[in-house]
Amino acid sequence: MTRGKWTDSRQGSGYHGGPVQFANATFEASMPPRPLVKLRKLCLALPESHEVESHGEPTFRVKNKMFAMYANANNHHGAGRHGVWLKSTVAEQRRMVRAAPEQYFVPPYVGKSGWVGAWLDGQVDWEAVAEFVREAYKLAAPARLLESLDDT
Prior knowledge:
By secondary structure, the protein is α+β, with helices and mostly antiparallel strands. The chain has one domain: Aspartate Aminotransferase, domain 1 (Alpha-Beta Complex), CATH 3.90.1150.30. The protein is built from 4 helices and 10 strands. It has a 6-stranded antiparallel β-sheet. A two-stranded antiparallel ribbon has the order 1-2. A two-stranded antiparallel ribbon has the order 3-4. Helix 1 crosses helix 3. The N and C termini lie far apart (43 Å). The relative contact order is 0.15.
């Protein structure tokens, strides 16, 4: 088997897309991007942002100040659902959680400081997530980077 190409040894044919049959389940090869892929793209598009793994999760920072953390569904951070924790204010956190408790939550550990969690499963409004990521970045970034952010 070579990277990027699946070969069925019984048939000798290469796999290049479409449904794949495994036992009694069929998987579509053109699956939508995972939430982390989309989140990473949003975060790293911001000026001087970078990714650092912390506590087993990707975190996104500017000048080493964290503004977003991915919460994987497969560990205690995600509690069975993919999500993102975003730097926020206590007032904004309360407003968001009250307005849409099915979409937003108070994350453990950092929630007491105003951070807000957003679920990244189901029907995600990625435009809203992009706006929230941008607002979280603004709370962590130095003033000179905020000026450059207005130009983007």
